[in-house]
Amino acid sequence: MTVDTLPVDRSSHIVVIGAGMGGLATAHALHRHAARVTVIERDSLPSRPAARAGTPQGRHLHILQPGGLMALERLLPGFADELLARGATAVAAPGGILWHSAAGWVKPQPATRASLLSASRDLIEWVTRDLVLERTPLDVRTGIEVAGLAVEDGRVVGVDVRDRGAASDEPTERVVADLVIDASGRRSHAPDWLEAAGYARPEEDLVDADLAYATRTYHRGPDDLGGWQGIFLQARAPETTRMGVMFPIEGDRWMVTLAGINGDTPPTDDEGYLAFARGMRSRAIAEAIEHLEPAGPIIGFRRTENRRRRYERLRRAPDGFVAVGDAACAFNPVYGQGMSVAALTAEALDRSLAEHAHRSGGDLAGVSAQLQREVARTNAGAWMVATGEDTRWPGTTGANPSAADRVLRRYLDRVVAAATVDAVVNTAFFRVVALMAPPTSLMRPSLAWRVLARRHPAPPEARPAPLPTRAHAHAA
Question: What are the pLDDT digits (tens) for 415-429?
Fold first, then answer.
């Protein structure tokens, strides 16, 4: 039996809460496993690239990591070409990026086959939504919100909804479903819904580096960065707390996001913003933007904690409910993982439901625990990367590294140092950052030998590092 002839219960109905990247990818991936799929969204959905209330982080830099891009391309063939046609920029990675890691400038290495697609969150979500709705028979209901889960005999049988903004004592409508997927993001109320239905709230892991960032767009010229396609300046724990990213987006614009950790908050006024950029380990971004014309205001954002809800560990949970995306595991957005992990999760759920369908004949009963475990497995690598970085700063809350964690951190410091000069280590490290390989791949004996066999001393940090030209960097 092929995937095209999977058994489907012709009376089955899947409800997906949320029409963001996670909800859209999941609804598209799972539509072949049910007779109907309904997407419930609080916002109205714009017919063009535009910000909406449900994505408050949408006005800041978003990059589709190669691993996530490949997942979206498998889910929606032609996605990359469509995004490029509507204005996204393909960035050669890592060779086209001026990258200052915690260990210093990363020497450009031979280009991999992977590229980053750089665009605004508004454009990425708009293209995804257009392709999903064009190719997938979904019922999308906007302007309504979920008031709670409908639970009968230990199983979720649907959701109770009301118009957005309606009073809490107004009557609700029940939308009956065989499987409910919560993709409502960081603001998910699922723990409250479970508690109201008589179940325990999931345990939560919270790691908060108190990172804040501020973003501005600038008009883009053909050679603003001296041949580089983007800039990525990392902080270096625990001495320096500032980082910054500058990448191209549609409309011939640069998008610049500056971030500070442990309360080092970037200002949102012109003079303070530029001064913050000049105070980083490298002045590369400051030197670039001081000559550029702003294309919009400076916008700040602070809700950046890593939060993981352990639904997969609930001893007693109703069948028929699964949390995905930021509703289950939200990462510090500065690491650019959320959209890509959402796409990878949608693929994983599709595979898992396909395996279940072959065993069950298409019945969706009893599958939610398996799906929730799959969500946790897919999130694990990105969680390790994000929290591993954030726990390096002394002011981070929720961090409790073990002795083994500290040993691993020292090893990863050497990986980062080796990646600045060693092409093999650079490729392996980039594949992890790009969500193309798990962090455990950095422990392969052949790679560990390259990392540990030579010394990679950290560079001095007495002065801001100079900006290397692209030609000089490749020749070094």
Answer: 988 988 888 998 899
More confident position, 54 or 194 = 194
| Residue 339 reports pLDDT greater than 70 | yes
Residue type, 300: G
Q: Domain 3-42+143-206+305-388 is classified in which CATH homologous superfamily?
A: FAD/NAD(P)-binding domain (3.50.50.60)
Comparing 113-122, 278-287, 315-324, 434-443, the range with the smallest average pLDDT is: 113-122
Q: Which residues pair with 91 in a beta bridge?
A: 116
3-state secondary structure at position 236: strand
pLDDT at 111: 52
Instruction: Say if CB 72 and CB 343 are below 8 A apart.
Output: yes
Between CA 204 and CA 329 the distance in angstroms is 9
Phi and psi at 323, nearest 5°, equal: -105, 135
The b-or-e profile of 120-159 (16+ CB within 10 A means b, else e) is bbbbbbbbbbebbbeebebebeeebbbbbbbbeeeebbbb
Domain boundaries defined on the chain: 3-42+143-206+305-388
Output the six-digit token pair for 228.
């580089």
Residue 469 has pLDDT above 70, yes or no: no
The CA distance from 78 to 53, in Å, is 29
Count CB-CB contacts under 10 A for residue 468: 20
Element (H, E) at 92: strand 89-92
Backbone angles phi, psi at 162, to 5 degrees: -150, 165
